Amino acid sequence: MQIDESLTHVLAWRGRSVHWQSFGEGPALVLLHGTPWSSALWRPIAEALSTQFTVYLWDMPGYGSSSKDPSHPVDLGLQGELFAELLDFWGLERPHVVAHDFGGAVALRARLLHGAAYASLCLVDVVALSPWGSPFFTLVKEHAAVFEQLPAAVHRGAVEAYIRGASHAGLGADDLATLVDPWADEEGQAAFYRQIAQADERFTDEVEPLYGTITEPVHIVWGNEDTWIPSDRAQRLSDYIPHATLTLINGAGHLIHLDAPAALAAELTRWLSTVAQ
């Protein structure tokens, strides 16, 4: 999505600038984005939920309005450490957490390796179980330095094709542009391939055996037509977390926020109402 200029607060962390914002009133609710998105993908749903919750949005380093220094790692290990420390910075001991895509791995690592605790955890089409990554994702990972040198027009075409594959319903020109534009300039192109190059299944393999130790209420939401991370992973993840509940949303792919926004908002509202009494 386009850079969210409303993330006006900045945390300086290990040389990085982490942009964030909170708004609304009620129990704390933190939303985590995935790749290649930013917190802007959550913005409409965050605004709807802010009538009942104090919502926290943030962009991970390498994404959105946060810093994209090429010398800074942006891998899942680092993002998990950051999220645990960010919760401490905000003074949130047990917030409700909703995570999408690799934001799920970030939330799970913060919980299982870095001492974070949640009032509840909702995992939406998340990166959590190996194997993960599309054929394009794997190709880029193996040849990131080459892809960084692509002519701008070729790079944009590749990113557009990649992002189109995340939607089942199809993306209009405006939605596609807002998803692609942040990666289209020189800084964005380098950042796009850099974050893929640093993706590694060891970051989920490390915590996968620990999923059964999670004691907080867990809900899994998945687009039934997700081709990036097929919905059979949702059932597998539910089996790893025996007390987890599961909802599949028909007609939605990986970009469930755009494919089925009303259904996703309704499901999150229903779930949160059961755990935020």
UniProtKB/TrEMBL annotation:
InterPro entries: AB_hydrolase_1, AB_hydrolase_fold, AB_hydrolase_sf
Gene3D superfamilies listed in its UniProt record: alpha/beta hydrolase (3.40.50.1820)
SUPFAM superfamilies per record: alpha/beta-Hydrolases (SSF53474)
The UniProt record lists the keyword Hydrolase: yes
Name recorded for this polypeptide: Alpha/beta hydrolase
Keywords from the named record: Hydrolase
One term of GO molecular function: monoacylglycerol lipase activity
Phylogenetic lineage: Bacteria, Bacillati, Actinomycetota, Actinomycetes, Micrococcales
PANTHER family according to UniProt: HYDROLASE, PUTATIVE (AFU_ORTHOLOGUE AFUA_2G14860)-RELATED (PTHR43798:SF33), MONOACYLGLYCEROL LIPASE (PTHR43798)
Species whose genome carries this gene: Pseudoclavibacter terrae
